[in-house]
Amino acid sequence: MHAYAQSIPAQHQVMTNFFTEDPLVGPSWACADLLWRQAVVGPDDVDVAQLYDAFSPLIPLSLEGYGFCGRGEGAAFTDGGALEWPDGRLPTNTSGGGMSEAYVHGFNLVLEGVRQIRGTSTSQVGDATVSLVTSGEGVPTSAVLFVGEPS
Amino acid sequence: MTSDSATPRSEEMEPAFLVPDVDDPDTRDFWLGCARGELLVQSCGECGRRRMPPRPMCPSCRSLETTWHPTSGRATVWSFVVAHPPLLPAYAAVAPYNVIVVALDDDPTIRFVGNLVEDADAPLDSVDPATVEIGEPVSVVFADVDGVTLPRWVRT
């Protein structure tokens, strides 16, 4: 485990972020700020991501929040199979995400994030050494970054 | 976030619209304003910063001093959704209807959640939800719902 963080932004109210100054900048941004501050790697170094997807918009918002693209660019980031396994720019939810795995509040995402670093995933991403796992955008959130040894 | 919509429990469900507690110490002044036909916004008594929803402490300077100020009641639709069943019975009866978030013209960082309706006493489904547009100008109106005065919005 390389880094972990949890956070909410100022004025945040659970699932009603439209009361904040910029409603389209949510808890992921605040959490990412703490996470990347601890880490020796950054968003460009992430090989594989498990992003909590209880609602579809959480994916583009999380991509923005954790710095893979700018505010408002999350949907465009996913174009061209960017999130697909195995050759996308950022293979995401490689164990299926909420639609394909049991909903246990993201714990399965942590397992998959670890498998990717150990090289034991059934959807293994090449020589993944940097693996990001996040909790949900839109609520008080958290994230963990696993970094493995290059094989 | 569980969904038990398949379970027939209508006899236990609340049959009427859900109305707020208008005697809560943090929000009482807001509801009293609505009853008078005024849309009030809470401000910090020290630094003057507006905040919504109402709460005891200023998130900016932590003062517990509170004041209330009327607004123009003019706003812009910031976003909206269209509600479909499964819903509580009173709401299912008027679905699909819109739920809008508006930003106040007086201070666009102050937003309210409500419904766009044809006029103050019109039902929630009085505006075709397919016609609601982000950015359209609206004005507050006040509707009596089961004895409580609620702010709603009409096109200007």
Structural descriptors:
heterodimer, A: 151 residues, alpha+beta, Peroxisomal Thiolase, Chain A, domain 1, four-stranded mixed sheet, 13% strand, B: 156 residues, mainly beta, OB fold (Dihydrolipoamide Acetyltransferase, E2P), 2 domains, three-stranded antiparallel sheet, 8 strands
- Describe the largest sheet of chain B: 5 strands, antiparallel
CATH superfamily of chain A: Thiolase/Chalcone synthase
CATH topology of the largest domain in chain B: OB fold (Dihydrolipoamide Acetyltransferase, E2P)
Provide the gyration radius of chain A in Å.
Answer: 14 Å
Report on this structure.
The complex is a heterodimer of chains A (151) and B (156). Chain A is of the alpha+beta class. Chain A has a single domain (3-147), classed as 3-Layer(aba) Sandwich (Peroxisomal Thiolase, Chain A, domain 1), CATH 3.40.47. Helix content of chain A is 24%, strand content 13%. Chain A has helices at residues 27-38, 58-65, 74-77, 107-118; strands spanning 3-7, 48-50, 130-134, 141-147. A four-stranded mixed beta sheet of chain A has the order 1-4-3-2, sandwiched between helices. In chain A, strand 3 and strand 4 form a beta hairpin. Chain A is globular, with a radius of gyration of 14 Å. The mean pLDDT of chain A is 93. Chain B has helices spanning 28-36, 89-92; strands at residues 40-44, 50-51, 66-70, 74-83, 97-104, 111-114, 137-145, 148-155. Chain B is mainly beta and 156 residues long. Chain B has two helices and eight strands. Chain B has two domains: 20-70, no CATH class; 72-156, OB fold (Dihydrolipoamide Acetyltransferase, E2P). A five-stranded antiparallel beta sheet of chain B has the order 6-5-4-7-8. In chain B, 20% of the residues are buried. The radius of gyration of chain B is 17 Å and the shape is globular. The chains are: A alpha+beta (151), B mainly beta (156). Chain A binds chain B through residues 10-11, 13, 16, 18-19, 21, 23, 54, and chain B through 1, 51-53, 59, 78-79, 101, 109, 111, 113.
